[in-house]
């Protein structure tokens, strides 16, 4: 059975149109109900959403936005699939009193309506007329799920939009400064290890019906873009016909496709302790896999679990830490 995150991301990739978020904020001259200044933001639909003030009681249907909020100092009142979030994203800590609102693609509309929220953050992957239904009771701010043309840039546009809606622009600026410093440190570690230009193939994989499907992270993915920024080469394009989806920059292949990767490839992936590792279990005795040059050379590395591959600055920072430890051999 496919992991939950595989099904949802694959669905999002098929539905998302990689809308460009417009992150402008306009100060409204009208006073809010409590005497403060209203806040108007423009979301990825191009729609102006007016709030009575900085949103404090907020919900999010997608885990990347949950991570943005917590990183900005705002604990969400409600989150989709809390168990899944806490399993796959340990880069931030969600308070135990958050309310679960169901699945990421189909949140409970009744629960959302009962929580007296200031705003609900969603991505453009919600099914049907869910956004319109939520808007009957609560302001909705829509963010793109991703943009393979500029994945890291889109991440920061999303962070800025969330910061504007929650009045945490200073925190967002500090996040960016700290992240840029961490990227510089990681670049230095890669250079010192003599690995600049080395091909790194990052993936995740799942087993279904006895077959293993591999999901390559191309340059259009957040992690692929980050590896490129660190100076690594992305070898996935060596596989004929390999293309990433327009939202998440993810491709698809099988174990036979891996034979097209360069012999000196460093093969990295992330798994989860709650699922069997397809590379060691399903492929453990597969002659194609075990015969690959980089497998024979011991250049396959499972990075630490629970770094959310589609997360925000906190997850990306943890990924950078994992890269540095890997290249330093620690």
UniProtKB/TrEMBL annotation:
UniProt-listed CDD domains: FhuD (cd01146)
Organism: Mumia zhuanghuii
GO cellular component: outer membrane-bounded periplasmic space
Name used for this protein in its record: Iron-siderophore ABC transporter substrate-binding protein
GO biological process: iron coordination entity transport
Residue ranges of every copy of the Fe/B12 periplasmic-binding domain listed in the record: 57-330
Keywords: Coiled coil, Signal, Transport
InterPro entries: ABC_transptr_periplasmic_BD, Bact_iron-sidero_bind
Major localization class: other
Lineage, opening ranks: Bacteria, Bacillati, Actinomycetota, Actinomycetes, Propionibacteriales
Signal peptide from the UniProt entry: 1-21
Coiled-coil residue spans: 158-192
Location in or out of the cell: Cell envelope
PROSITE patterns xrefs: FE_B12_PBP, PROKAR_LIPOPROTEIN
SUPFAM superfamilies linked: Helical backbone' metal receptor (SSF53807)
Superkingdom field: Bacteria
Family: Belongs to the bacterial solute-binding protein 8 family.
């Amino acid at each position: 059975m496919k992991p939950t995150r595989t099904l949802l991301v694959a669905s999002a990739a098929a539905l998302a149109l990689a809308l460009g978020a417009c992150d402008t904020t306009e100060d409204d001259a009208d006073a809010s109900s409590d005497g403060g200044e209203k806040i108007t933001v423009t979301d990825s639909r191009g729609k102006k959403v007016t709030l009575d003030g900085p949103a404090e009681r907020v919900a999010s249907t997608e885990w990347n936005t949950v991570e943005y909020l917590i990183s900005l100092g705002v604990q969400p009142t409600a989150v989709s699939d809390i168990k899944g979030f806490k399993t796959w994203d340990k880069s931030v800590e969600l308070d135990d009193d958050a309310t679960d609102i169901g699945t990421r693609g189909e949140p409970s509309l009744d629960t959302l309506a009962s929580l007296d929220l200031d705003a609900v953050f969603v991505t453009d992957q919600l099914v049907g007329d869910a956004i319109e239904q939520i808007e009957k009771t609560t302001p909705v701010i829509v963010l793109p799920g991703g943009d393979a043309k500029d994945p890291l840039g889109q991440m920061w546009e999303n962070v800025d939009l969330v910061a504007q809606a929650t009045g945490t622009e200073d925190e967002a600026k500090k996040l960016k400064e700290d992240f840029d410093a961490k990227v510089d440190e990681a670049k230095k570690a890669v250079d010192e290890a003599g690995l600049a230009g080395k091909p790194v193939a990052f993936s995740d994989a799942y087993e279904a019906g006895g077959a293993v499907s591999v999901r390559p992270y191309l340059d259009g993915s957040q992690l692929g873009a980050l590896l490129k920024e660190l100076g690594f080469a992305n070898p996935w394009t060596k596989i004929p016909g390999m293309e990433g989806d327009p939202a998440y920059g993810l491709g698809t292949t099988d174990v036979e496709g891996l034979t097209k990767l360069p012999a000196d490839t460093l093969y990295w992936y992330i798994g989860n302790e709650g699922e069997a590792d397809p590379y060691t279990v399903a492929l453990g005795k597969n002659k194609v896999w075990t015969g690959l040059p980089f497998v024979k050379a011991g250049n396959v590395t499972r990075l630490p679990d629970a770094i959310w591959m589609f997360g925000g600055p906190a997850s990306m920072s943890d990924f950078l830490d994992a890269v540095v430890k890997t290249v330093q051999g620690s």
